Amino acid sequence: MDTPYTLHLFGRDLRFHDHFALDAAARYGLPVAATFVFDRTRPYGYNSRQESVVYRRLRWMHEQLRGHGGWISVVAGNELDWLEKMLRSGVVRAVSACREYDPGGVARSTERRNLCAKYSVDYREYEDSLMLPIGSVCKPDGSAYLVYGPYARRWHEIFESREWFVAGNTLPKIQWLPSRQEDFPSRESLDIEQFFESVRLDMPHNPDWTCYADRRDRVDDPNGTTSLSVALRLGAVGPRECAILAKKQSTTLLGELVWREFFTMLLSRFPASAHTEFREKYRGIAWSQDSEMLDAWQEGKTGFPLVDAGMRELAATGHMHNRIRMLTANVATKLLRLDWRLGERVFAEQLLDYDSAINLGNWQWSAGTGADAAPYFRVFNPEVQRAKFDPLGEYVRKWLPENSPGSYPLPIVDYRRSRGEYLEWWKSQT
Ligand SMILES: Cc1cc2nc3c(=O)[nH]c(=O)nc-3n(C[C@H](O)[C@H](O)[C@H](O)COP(=O)(O)OP(=O)(O)OC[C@H]3O[C@@H](n4cnc5c(N)ncnc54)[C@H](O)[C@@H]3O)c2cc1C
């Protein structure tokens, strides 16, 4: 194949619409080759459960491309080795990709850029996974906002001040490089296990999110939230498209999407917060590493029904309602005093919407160590939470069918005593 072409490296932008990189490629005029590399050497990338959903999405994209004379090349291995092979052929004129902000993505970006420079090939990144360019929301002196409120105010000012443009469907606009591969690679050839896959990857038609603020906290309401997190993580829905829809229907929902950008910005500006407490004064805390406690929490055997139901749901489906994530993280870091990094890893390996910046941001928020964190003295009472958010017990019954309310095992810690001990401990540590 010696037709010169543009190579687009798909990453967390698995769609054809609301896509600035593909829109630019369409205008560039050269045929476009689409590719995705399952690269397990890249830190903070997709976990193995997510790979299963990514695979499904790529197969769908491949079918779409076939309808337009193109194809998507999907391989597993070291992305840089693969890219170098492509560049060596001498026919790649430009490489484009979606910008990533976590430490793994930033390192990969430098490596790609250097490699392209070696072959005198233009490398460009586009901000296709966020609503606003990451650098645009900062203080007047260019420094980062560390508190969500002022960050969100500035975010809204910028968002309101721009004429919003969402690139439409780029699929028919692009001249795709003709297909040379008939079959889409099998899961086995890519070493991908099949996992729970009935997860929403498309934007619903005419979504109604007007009652989001009233319904989002009810863990027994499957339609109380948008269920878009996996699609947002993969880039199967466009973030700008989401923002425009959310703005029309629910400011609370738009606020949650802004939290997503706030945490992304924080990790990008402070990459050390991926492994250490965001606030320096909390860096010496002697968190517990108790593996028995960790196992009990992870396996859903704490004796707190709502916590256990949540951990069972996570293990079975890769999902957990936001309220339960807040509760399980609060119990782990406060009542059990477990190192937030241990809990963060469990979520990182199991969540289908795992996103390093959001997960780290929320874990540090829950542990009280984050930039703009929950106050240390907010210790959730699992029973009060159960009465508030699962009043009819439907959620607990679904995930703990073996236990009738009266037969539930005793909690592994006593709430009142552990809360008191935790508060004393926190004061002695900080
Ligand atoms: C300890 C903990 C860990 C978490 N880890 C992740 C993670 O790895 N990936 C992830 O996408 N979300 C994470 N969240 C945030 C939140 O729980 C999920 O985004 C949400 O439950 C997904 O369901 P939904 O799409 O229906 O959300 P909706 O309530 O419909 O919200 C819409 C979108 O807003 C964003 N959002 C919502 N809540 C938050 C939040 N607290 N912080 C940042 N963005 C938010 C998400 O992109 C979400 O899809 C975590 C929360 C906690 C407390």
Explain this structure to me?
The protein is of the alpha/beta class. It is built from 18 helices and 5 strands. It has a 5-stranded parallel beta sheet, sandwiched between helices. The protein starts with a strand and ends with a helix.
Write a short abstract of this structure.
With 430 residues, the chain is of the alpha/beta class. The protein folds into three domains: 5-127, Rossmann fold (3-Layer(aba) Sandwich), CATH 3.40.50; 130-169 and 203-269, Serine Threonine Protein Phosphatase 5, Tetratricopeptide repeat (Alpha Horseshoe), CATH 1.25.40.80; 280-429, DNA Cyclobutane Dipyrimidine Photolyase, subunit A, domain 3.
Determine the N-to-C terminus distance.
63 Å
Overall radius of gyration: 23 Å
CATH class label of the largest domain: Mainly Alpha
Bound molecules: flavin-adenine dinucleotide
SSE ordering: EHEHEHEHEHHHHHHHHHHHHHH
Number of helices: 18
Query: Largest beta sheet: what is the strand line-up?
Result: 3-2-1-4-5
CATH architecture of the largest domain: Orthogonal Bundle
Q: What would the average pLDDT be, to the nearest integer?
A: 95
> How helix-rich are the residues, as a percent range?
40-55%
Q: Give me the CATH superfamily of the largest domain.
A: DNA Cyclobutane Dipyrimidine Photolyase, subunit A, domain 3
Low confidence ranges: none
**Overall geometric form:** globular
| Broad structural category | alpha/beta
What is the tally of beta strands?
A: 5
Name the beta content range.
5-15%
Classify the fold: give the CATH topology of the largest domain: DNA Cyclobutane Dipyrimidine Photolyase, subunit A, domain 3
> Total domains, how many?
3
Please outline the major beta sheet.
5 strands, parallel
